[in-house]
TrEMBL record:
It comes from Sphingomonas cynarae. PANTHER family: GTPASE DER (PTHR43834). Pfam families: KH_dom-like (PF14714), MMR_HSR1 (PF01926). It comes from the Bacteria. The gene is der. The lineage of its organism: Bacteria, Pseudomonadati, Pseudomonadota, Alphaproteobacteria, Sphingomonadales. Associates with the 50S ribosomal subunit. GTPase that plays an essential role in the late steps of ribosome biogenesis. Belongs to the TRAFAC class TrmE-Era-EngA-EngB-Septin-like GTPase superfamily. EngA (Der) GTPase family. Gene3D superfamilies: 3.30.300.20, P-loop containing nucleotide triphosphate hydrolases. Residues 5-169, 183-367 form the EngA-type G domain. This is GTPase Der. InterPro entries: AAA+_ATPase, G_ENGA, GTP-bd, GTPase_Der, KH_dom-like, KH_dom-like_a/b, P-loop_NTPase, Small_GTP-bd.
Length: 459
């Protein structure tokens, strides 16, 4: 995974830093209490805000004390957090107004090279209006108005964070996200689809136990492999792959054994780890409802997916079978059209090169970042070709679009009344994006964002 940009929440004690931290990470990781000084050490967590991912640090309340005292050592921890952060989120209590310690923190932050966002917490209602006016004297401009406890104002926070954090993701040393890094490829499917047999054929050795009995594989097994692309010739560099074999996934109602439940859970975790997931079908059985459930899970997790029809060497009426599977996928996976379908044989190895070539191509699409100019030109063409509807006679104004992350490609569209866009128009935009921007059938995430507080239902 990439190293995420870092946001440090700073402020005096008891202004709601830990409450905001818990809100951003989506779980109660930090202790919260009305008493000041509950947080002493830095606490970190992964935050997700309307498609924007970042690392957030909850710091101790900043107190102007001697460095040898406990409050002083806590202050030094806070200073260290700000020094390593990409953004400092300076939180104050709008209801209490600006107090001398807030002014002291502001003086310190102005000397730092870290960009600062001022945020007024507890700003719901009108009780914080005076404090918000007072905060202008701190020199950081208009504050973002929040209620960490009630989750209000997070959309406005997203808007000010986005330009400061966009493009800040850097690859981690251990799991590099460059396209020449090993491809993490998971093979999933129902029991006895031939997953282990196919991987053994790829490796050229009986690395995994196979047999006619369903359910032999229990743990997810990762094996390093080098694939030599035939298109690169005999002297081409082999491409590194981490192959992940998983336990067969039966219908949940049929899974009674505790060990099998654990095996299936382990397989789903392997999907989270993978970049590309191959859903292996038994060509002698065709496509079944359980295959579509597995495919839904893969796409829900945002992974790129390929469908592989195994045992193709013994399939009857192959042309009819292939077309039937394609039609069933179009109907059953309506959220993603055009998923790549390849035919393979784990017994003979036929089709493996085609499968691997498709896997590397789909990873490239899944990792794609579109340039701002190209994205805006597509946006203008899409709206001109099919303007958004006007529900109730009120025009929906689409203003601009930005890509907030890759893997999967994720975008935010800003505009007026975009929350009223019908699902059919959102599908139109996503399908147009896939076709014109080269994403193909990989999952694409699009979030609509109105300029007002998304928690305010008033237009």
């Amino acid at each position: 995974m990439p190293k995420l940009p870092v946001v440090a929440i700073v402020g005096r004690p008891n202004v709601g830093k830990s409450t905001l931290f818990n809100r951003l990470v989506g779980k109660k990781l930090a202790l919260v209490d009305d008493r000041p000084g509950v947080t002493r050490d830095r606490r970190e967590g992964d935050a997700h805000l309307i498609g924007l991912d970042f690392r957030v640090i909850d710091t101790a309340g900043y107190e102007d004390q001697d460095a040898q005292t406990l409050p002083g050592r806590m202050r030094m921890q806070t200073e260290a957090a700000v020094a390593q952060a990409d953004v400092a989120l300076f939180l104050f209590d709008a209801r209490a107004g600006i107090v001398p310690l807030d002014e002291e923190i502001a003086r310190w932050l102005r000397q730092s090279s870290t960009p600062v966002i001022l945020a007024a917490n507890k700003a719901e209602g009108n009780a914080g209006n005076q404090g918000i006016l007072e905060s202008l004297s701190l020199g950081f401009g208009d504050p973002v108005q929040l209620s960490a406890e009630h989750g209000e104002g997070l959309g406005d926070l997203f808007e000010v964070l986005l330009p400061l954090l966009e493009g800040k993701e850097i690859p981690d040393d251990e799991e590099d996200e460059r396209l020449d890094a090993p491809l993490k490829l998971a093979i999933v499917g129902r029991p006895n689809a031939g997953k282990s047999t196919l991987i053994n054929r790829m490796l050229g050795e009986d690395r995994l136990i196979t047999g006619p009995e369903a359910g032999i594989t229990r743990d997810s097994i990762a094996v390093d492999w080098q694939w030599r692309d035939p298109l690169r010739g005999a002297h081409g560099e082999p491409r590194p792959v981490k192959l992940i074999d998983t336990a067969g996934m039966r219908k949940r109602a049929k899974v009674q054994d505790k060990l099998e439940k654990m095996s299936v859970a382990d397989g789903l975790h392997a999907v989270d780890f993978a970049e590309v997931v191959v859903l292996l079908l038994d060509a002698t059985l065709g496509l079944e409802a359980q295959d579509l459930r597995i495919a839904d899970k893969v796409l829900e997790e945002g992974r790129a997916m390929i469908i592989a029809l195994n045992k193709w060497d013994v399939a009857e009426n192959p042309s009819s079978l292939f077309n039937g599977v394609k039609r069933a996928l179009e109907d059953g996976l309506s959220q993603v059209k055009g998923v790549t379908v390849v035919t393979v044989s784990g017994a003979t190895g036929k089709g493996v090169d085609q499968l691997m070539s498709a896997a590397f191509q789909v990873r490239e699409a899944w990792s794609k970042r579109v340039g701002t100019g190209e994205l805006n030109r597509w946006f203008e063409r899409a709206i001109e070709a099919n303007p958004p509807p006007a529900p109730g006679g009120k025009r929906i104004k689409m203003r601009y679009v930005t890509q907030v992350k890759t893997r999967p490609p994720s975008f935010v569209i800003f505009g007026t009344r975009v929350d009223q866009l019908p699902a059919s128009y959102e599908r139109y935009l996503v399908n147009s994006m896939r076709k014109e921007l080269g994403f193909g059938a990989v999952p694409v995430r699009v979030t609509m964002r109105a300029p007002k507080n998304p928690f305010d239902q008033k237009d």
